[in-house]
Amino acid sequence: MSDSYYRTIKGKQFDRQLLEIAEKASQRSKAPLSKNVAKNLFDTIVDGNEYTDVEKRTVKYIRDNYNFTPEADEYLRTEIRKWAAKISVPSAKKSKKTSKPSPKKSKSKAKPKEESNDTSYFHVFDSNSDDDVEPTPEYNELVELNKYGKKEKSPYLRYVFLGIVILIVICLFFLIRSCKSDTTKSSNVTVSEPNSKAINQNESSAKAVKREQLLPHTEIGKGTVTLQFIKRLDAIRYINTAQIKFIKQSLNVGDGASNELANLAEALKKYPEIKVRVKGHTCFIGELDENKILSEERAKLIQDELIKLGVNAKQLEARGFGETTNIDTNYTEQGRIKNRRVDFTVLSVNEKN
Q1: Residues 133, 12: one domain?
Q2: Which domain does 287 fall in, by range?
Q3: Phi-psi bin for 286: left (phi > 0), alpha (psi -120 to 50), beta?
Q4: pTM score, two decimals?
Q5: CA separation (Å) from 179 to 68, 172, 174, 189?
Q6: Which residue ranges traverse the bilayer (predicted)?
Q7: Which of 244, 240, 260, 227 is nearest to 349 (CA)?
């Protein structure tokens, strides 16, 4: 047979007629090959009523080396697979008894000898054996691709939704629990309101007992008044500069505290219009929270002592500052002694009194 119907490229044979269709179309225009070119290629393949290996190789070569429009490429692939599936039948179904030559192809081209003897690559279409049609590998590939396209969606969204639901449930749980806690607290406050007057009456004694239990201390003795405050300005200056020292980590006062308290009480009783803040302080020895509590207890202790000496409770306001307001360094013993103190600040002078 002549090789004029085939073209050899890199040692492999390709269908010359199919190659020429693609070449001529690409020479006419630089644009991608259109659907009409794909139809011409398909019609040329169908003309032989079988899909040979040479044609398969040629179609693959054309698709790899020529640029088709998406519509043309889809048309060529789909139509070839449909047609190949339709004409394909098992090679075993061929008649072995007939001695007649196979029908002549309508194409005016011949096959190489080795291809014409290999019946496993092409089959004769028999309209009477439609029930025995077996899909080609290309058709099976298309079916698998379709199945892959219909693959179930990832359960990622399901997990996200489940996580959101769980988070909402947890938030609701804590919200309900918080509401119940607030209700319990409010009920406790309501029950205790009738007894508020009795608590206020025993407030001073209760504080003293609590302070004694938490931080035992030595009773402050009665001091002596050593100063006279003829002018209110003198009293204010004394109050703003007065200090009562304390022993480390305790409520025990230092030397001279009783006389200092006596002078303070004298100034406040003589000028009841003066309102004072009693401020407790500590050095930095100990924990921060513990020092805050200790400073508050020191301020309250001095406040109670002044009330015992006759000062009106409305003139006094106690507050603890812990180790945050030092007047000297905490890295020397002398500095720490100065920082362990209670001092005073005049807040206001009410002329109406």
Answers
A1: yes
A2: 217-349
A3: left
A4: 0.42
A5: 69, 11, 9, 15
A6: 156-176
A7: 240
Task: Kindly report, residue by residue over 231-257, the tens digit of the pLDDT.
Answer: 999 999 999 999 999 998 899 998 889
Boundary residue ending a domain (126, 149, 172): 149
Same domain, 75 and 96: yes
| Cβ count within 10 A of residue 31 | 10
Q: Can you spell out the DSSP letters for 55-108? A: HHHHHHHHHHHSPBPHHHHHHHHHHHHHHHHHH---GGGS-SS--SPPPPPSSS
Same domain, 117 and 169: no
Region of 11 (left: φ > 0; alpha: ψ -120 to 50; beta: rest) is left
- State pLDDT tens for residues 180-194: 766 655 555 444 444
Domain count of the chain? 3
Query: What is the gyration radius of the CA atoms in the chain, in angstroms?
Result: 53
Residues 6+ apart with CB under 8 A from 92: none
Q: How many CB atoms lie within 10 A of CB 107?
A: 16
Q: Whole-angstrom Cα distance, residue 45 to residue 86?
A: 14
Collapse the DSSP code of 15 into the 3-class scheme (helix H, G, I; strand E, B; otherwise coil) and give the result. Answer: strand
pLDDT digits (tens, 9 = 90+) for 316-339: 999 999 999 999 999 999 999 999
- The DSSP bridge pattern shows strands 274-280 and 316-320 to be parallel
3-state secondary structure of 271: coil
In a domain, 203, yes or no: no
Q: What element of type H or E holds 319?
A: strand 316-320
The answer to whether the beta carbons of residues 245 and 252 sit under 8 Å apart is no
- Pair (34, 136) in one structural domain: yes
Rounded Cα–Cα distance for residues 282 and 249 (Å): 8
In a domain, 191, yes or no: no
112 in the same domain as 157? no
